[in-house]
Amino acid sequence: MAERFIEYSHDGQTLEGFFAWDESRSGPQPGVLVSHAWGGRTELECDKARELAQLGYCAFALDLYGKGVQGSGPEENAKLMQPFLADRAKLQSRMAAALAALRAQPEVDSKRVAALGYCFGGLCVLDVARTGTDVRGVISMHGLFNPPGNTAGTKITAKVLALHGHDDPMVPVDMVNALQEELTAASADWQIHVFGNTMHAFTNPNANDPAHGTVYNAAADRRSWVITLDFLDEVLA
Asked: What is the pTM of this model?
C-alpha cells in the first residue's frame, strides 16, 4: 500500500487531503472520495481510505476546513460546519474542488469515481449528486438529509445510497420520506437502507453519547459496509 498527503486549494484557502492506493496494481484504478464528519478530516477517514485502497480503490480523504484545521469538540465542530450549512453553494463548490483533486491523481481512473461521506460528510456527498455532478455514485453514511435549496429541477445522474439509523434524532422519519420524494423527483436511481434500533454515527467506534443520539452499533457498522462494498462494486465496475 502507498499513501501521500495532497495539497489543493479553493477560494484562496489551502486544503490538504489524504490519498491512499495499492501501488502493486497496474493502470489507473477507480477513485472514491471520502468526506469527513463535522470535526474535520481525522484518522477515522484516513483509515477508511486505507481500507478502500486495500480493496483496489484509490481513496482520497478530503479536507473541507483548511490544512491542519480540526474541531476539538462539539462546540468548535459546529462552528466549523455551520458556514457550509448556511452557504450550500460554497459547500458544493468546495466538494467540486476535492473531486477535481482526486481526479487529477495519475493513479485514478477519472471516469470511474464515487463519493462516500460520514455524518456531515453524508450531506456533502448528497449535494455532489444533487448538483448533477458527473460521478458514478454517492454513499451517505448516517448522513444529514437537509435539502440545499438551490438544486430544484436538477436531474441526479449519480446512483444514490443512503445508510441510516432509524433512531437517529438528527434525521427523523419525515426527513427520510422527504429525501425519498426529492430523489424520485430528480429521477435518481436511489436506495435508502434503514437500520432498526440504531442511532447517529453508528460506524464510529468512539461514539458513545446516547443523550446526544450518537452511539456505535457494531451490527449496523458491519451490515452497512457490506452494502457499501456491493454498491461500489456495481457503480465502479
From this structure: 0.97
